[in-house]
Amino acid sequence: MNVRNTTQRNQASKTPKTPNASVIEVFPTPIVKFRFPKHEKYFFRDIPKSEDRTPEGWNCSVNSSYPFTGENDPYVPDEVNKRLQRDVMGSIRDVFIENGLPPVEMGAFWYNIYHEEQNQERHDHVSAHANTFLSGVYYNKNATPTTFYPPSTLYRTLRFRGCEGTIIGNATRDTYEAEVNDGDIILFPPYLEHEVKKQTSESMRLTFSFNLTTINPNSIEWITKEY
Ligand SMILES: [Fe+2]
To answer: How far is the CA of 223 from the centre of ligand 1 (A)?
Structure first.
């Protein structure tokens, strides 16, 4: 053993050449994830790939009821849709109250059914018609990740190759794939762009999407309403 080198190493570990660096995570983007407690109550049978029900203006192929599931929807009965919407809202209310978040109500609420080769292009939920606070997805059947993109691309004057796994790795991602299972609900800011990649499974992927708007913080209904 080289005694001199060992001593030098010991000294070096006692007095590092540079102080420990820390990262201030400023302007983080919240994605809230929780389990929908009544998930087991909502079982939907597989339906075949339908005629194209892609909403106007969407550049993709998906069977969607956007922005609202109608009373005579061919796949989701009105009673089930209304009950599901109430139950999802009830679970959000519980999470919000537990975490001191402000009162919200449900705006648009719709489903998206994807079969093989179907997808939804990169988009956001910002709208001139509604002041959405958070948007959400309930993954009901055959969940696959939603792919999120960084909130701003203005900082991308260069590519951050080689930062993966470092202390600034999270701030330099190209994309983020939310890991989800059937029964999960995620909430995210409406400005956060996201997409659903082309599906590879023949089984239908069923999600319910929605937008939440804030309501009067003194609303008695928020605390007392039964969902
Ligand atoms: Fe979306």
So the answer is: 29
- What separation in Å is there between the alpha carbon of 195 and the centre of ligand 1? 7
Inform me whether the pLDDT recorded for 209 exceeds 90. yes
Task: Give the Å distances, CA to CA, from 137 to 27, 31, 49, 186.
Answer: 23, 11, 21, 5
Q: What CA–CA distance (Å, rounded) separates 60 from 50?
A: 14
Threshold 0.90, pTM exceeds: no
pLDDT (0 to 100) of residue 6: 46
Tell me the two tokens of residue 142: 């055959």
Burial (CB < 10 A; 0-12, 13-18, 19+), residue 151, is middle
Q: How many CB atoms sit inside 10 A of residue 91's CB?
A: 19
Domains in the chain, ordered, with CATH? Answer: 29-146+183-224 (2.60.120)
Ligand 1 centroid to residue 171 C-alpha, Å? 22
Residue with the bigger pLDDT between 72 and 163: it is: 72
CA of 30 from ligand 1 middle (Å) equals: 16
Distance 124 CA to ligand 1 centre (A): 6
Distance from the CA of 114 to the center of ligand 1, in angstroms?
A: 13
* Single-letter code of the amino acid located at 10: N
**Per-residue pLDDT band at 16 (split at 50, 70, 90):** low
pLDDT digits (tens, 9 = 90+) for 169-186: 888 888 999 999 999 999
- Check residues 161 and 81 and name the one with the higher pLDDT: 81
Cross-strand partners of 212: 106, 134
